[in-house]
Amino acid sequence: MTLTIITYPDKQLKNISKEVTAFDNTLHRFLDDMYDTMITCNGIGLAAIQVANPIRALLLCIPDEEGNQHRDNLLEIINPVIVNTDGSVLYQEGCLSVPGFYEDVERYETLTLRYQNRYGERCTLEAKELLSIAIQHEIDHLEGKLFIEKLSYSRRKKFEKEYKKALKEKK
Ligand code: QAP
Ligand code: CO
Asked: How far is the CA of 137 from the centre of ligand 2 (A)?
């Protein structure tokens, strides 16, 4: 089942998501619905708050070299904590909750992540390249932050202008 993605400037996107404590069937069904939603909407990452559920859960499915996504590469990340970071990189990011807008954002180049999987088992992963960037983008959602908040004043102005124009044209 696909869920509805909420988009900027919906205030719910500012909510701080809560720790997951129940690793039960309700969570599993919700994660499955998040996956259907992410794939249907052509996303590589999705945080639970983007479908209006303020829990610390996110999905990532990074495409292979040919640009294809495989369910085997799906990461279901719950209660994540970044424990180590190194370097910095610029990458042109987008977001399913900010459709049609892409801008360069600075992120850590590599990181170590501790998290739980859908069964509550504790996991650790080392991330670099697009996975590292995507993890940071999605964890920001859990803190109520969007990538547009990391833009310089002038780029944020450019965003507000373009986005408002696009919203008007949609209606
Ligand atoms: C977050 O973003 C991300 O505007 C995931 O019209 C972004 O999946 C991680 C999307 C960049 C790392 C680097 C955006 C789809 C998808 C749009 C997404 C759109 C359709 C964004
Ligand atoms: Co996003």
From this structure: 6
Of all protein residues, whose CA lies closest to atom 4 belonging to ligand 1? 99
3-class SS of residue 77 = strand
For 121-134, write each residue's pLDDT tens digit. Answer: 999 999 999 999 99
Q: Provide the percentage of residues in the chain whose pLDDT is more than 70.
A: 100
User: Which residue has the CA at smallest separation from atom 8 of ligand 1?
Assistant: 43
The Cα 129–Cα 3 span in angstroms is: 29
Q: Which domains does the chain have, with CATH numbers?
A: 11-170 (3.90.45.10)
Whether 126 is a known active-site residue: answer no
Instruction: Enter the pTM of the model.
Output: 0.98
Q: Identify the active-site residue in 76, 93, 103, 138.
A: 138
**Dihedral (CA of 115, 117, 120, 124) sign:** negative
SS3 12: helix
Closest CA to 64 of 56, 54, 73, 75: 73
CA atoms of 166 and 171, how far apart (whole Å):
9
* Residues lining ligand 1, Cβ inside 6 A: 42-45, 91, 93-96, 99-100, 130, 133-134, 137
Sequence-ordered list of residues with C-beta below 8 angstroms from that of 53, at least 6 positions apart, any chain: 30
